[in-house]
């Protein structure tokens, strides 16, 4: 397992959205209402990018088909077509003045 820094804490602010490719993972780091989230960068429904998703009240809504997921645990809250699996939520790790994620090298 290894720590992968994503950004400096000083760069984060409400409205912050940035995607990262780490190994085979596409991740999306967000900050809304003082809360920071790290999720898979594509919707599990049809793999539409989530960088343009609406985020409010701890919920992320895919811009393509309006599927809604909880940012607390990734579960599907609302679907407009067939149900899909949940959205993967990643644990954020703080190290010094950086925010990042721990990647399990065995999942590569």
Automatic annotation (TrEMBL):
Domain of life: Bacteria
Keywords: 2Fe-2S, Iron, Iron-sulfur, Metal-binding
Residue ranges of every copy of the Rieske domain listed in the record: 1-101
Molecular function (Gene Ontology), one example: 2 iron, 2 sulfur cluster binding
Signal peptide: none
Organism: Halioglobus maricola
Database matches in Pfam families: Rieske (PF00355)
Transmembrane helix found in the keyword field: no
UniProt protein name: Rieske (2Fe-2S) protein
């Amino acid at each position: 397992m290894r720590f992968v820094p994503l950004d400096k804490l000083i760069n984060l602010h409400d409205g912050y959205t940035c995607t990262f490719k780490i190994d085979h993972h596409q991740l999306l780091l967000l900050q809304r209402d003082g809360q920071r989230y790290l999720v898979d960068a594509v919707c599990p429904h049809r793999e539409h990018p989530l960088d343009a998703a609406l985020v409010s009240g701890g919920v992320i809504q895919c811009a393509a088909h309006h599927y809604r997921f909880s940012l607390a645990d990734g579960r599907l809250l609302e679907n407009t077509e067939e149900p899909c699996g949940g959205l993967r939520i990643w644990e954020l790790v703080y190290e010094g003045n950086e925010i990042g994620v721990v990647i399990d090298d065995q999942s590569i």
